[in-house]
Amino acid sequence: SREIIKELAWLGLDWDEGPIFQSRRTGIYLPLAEQLLERGLAYRSEPNTEGKTAIILRVQPEDINIPDRVYGLISISGAELKDIVLVKSDGSPAYNFACVVDDHELRISHVIRGDDHLPNTPKQLLLYRALDWEPPIFAHLPLILGPDKSPLSKRHGATSLRAFREKGILAEALVNYLALLGWSPGGNRELLDREELIREFSLKKVSRKAAVFDHQKLVWMNGRYLQQSDSGKLARTLQPLLAGTNWEGISPDRLEAVITLLGHRLKTLGDFPKLADYCLEGKISYEPEAVAQHWSAPGVAGILAETREAIAAAEPFSREKLEESLRAVVDRRGNKGGALMHPLRVALTGRKDSPGIFEIIHLLGRKTTLARLDQALDFLSRRA
C-alpha cells in the first residue's frame, strides 16, 4: 500500500480516507452475514473436513438490469446466476461481499473500474438488494490494450507507475495521456492540464471501444510537457534519476543550463544522461557515421586547427566575438560555413546532430572547448 500511496502522490492524486485493509474489518463483515442468515436470505454450506462452514446468499432466478454509465443498461439472465458466497469456511469475507460492504460503509458514490469486472456487478447488485442498501453508480471502462491488441502487460514494456517515473515521464504528461485513452474533450485537443481535465471529463464521452496504449505517443506528449516546463523545476525533478550516472552530484544550476540547451531534443528525463554526455568535462567518443560524414574531406584538420586558434584568441569570449572570429576563418579559407560548423560540431559533441554550436561553446566554456579541439586534432593526426 505504501508503494501505491507514493505513486498516487507523485501523480498529484489525493484521497479522502484510508488506506482501508479488509483484513482488519472482519468485525464489520461477519455480523452482516449473520443478519442475512437470520433473515433467511442466506444459508450455511455443508461442513468441510474440518467441520467449518461457509455462509452463502440464496439467489432467486430473476433477471438483473445493470445501469452502467458507459455501456448503458446491461441485462443479465437470472438463469446465469448462482448462489453467492458471503463468508468462506475460514471465516474470511468473499471478494464481492467485502466490496459491497466497504463501498457502502465508505459512502462510495461511483464505482469506476475495468469492464473485466462486469461479471461481478450482478452479484454485487443482488448483495445491495439483500442488505437493503442503495447501490452506487457503476461505470465499466474498456481495458487498455497493447499494440498487438492483447491486454496491456509487462511484455509490452513499462506499465507500472514506478516504471514510468523512473523512465523520466512527467506525472502531468502521464495523467494527460491516460485521460485521453478512450475519452476525448473534442476539438482535436490533446494537451490539457489537470484543471481542464477535471472541468471537462465526463463518463458520457467514454468510448466503449478498448484503447491501445501507444508508448511513442506518450513520449511525444511528454516531450511537449518538457518543452513547456520551467528548466529549474525540471532540474530538481531530474536529480534523483541521475543516481549512479556520471551526472550524479552535478549542481542544479548546471543541470538547468544543459536542459535549456537540449530543448526539444529531450523527450523523457530518462534520455538526459545519454543525450547530454558531451556536456560533461573530459574526453568524448565519436559516432562513426559523424566521423565518416564530416571528417573525411581533405583539409578538415587544418580547419579545426585554425578554428582552435580563433577561439583561443577571442576576446571577449562572447557569442558576437566568436561568430566574428569563426566567420573570418571561413572567409580566409574560401569555404562555406558548413565546412567549418559540421566538423566543429563533431569535435565538440562527437555527433553529427546537436544543438547550436555557439550555445554548446557557451555551455562548455573556453577551456573545455579547446580541450575538445585538441582531442579531435589528435584523433585526426593518428588517423592520417
Account of the 3D structure:
The chain is built from 16 helices and nine strands. The strands form four sheets. Strands 1-2-5 form a three-stranded antiparallel beta sheet. The longest helix is centred in the last third of the chain and has 27 residues, at 357-383. It is elongated and about 100 Å long. The chain has helices at residues 2-11, 26-38, 95-105, 121-130, 161-167, 171-179, 194-200, 215-228, 231-238, 252-262, 272-275, 288-294, 300-313, 319-333, 337-349, 357-383, and strands at 42-44, 55-57, 64-68, 72-76, 84-87, 110-114, 137-141, 144-145, 211-212. It is mainly α. The chain folds into four domains: 1-141, Rossmann fold, CATH 3.40.50.620; 143-228, Orthogonal Bundle (Glutamyl-tRNA Synthetase, domain 2), CATH 1.10.1160.10; 230-270, no CATH class; 288-382, Arc Repressor Mutant, subunit A (Orthogonal Bundle), CATH 1.10.10. The mean pLDDT is 93.
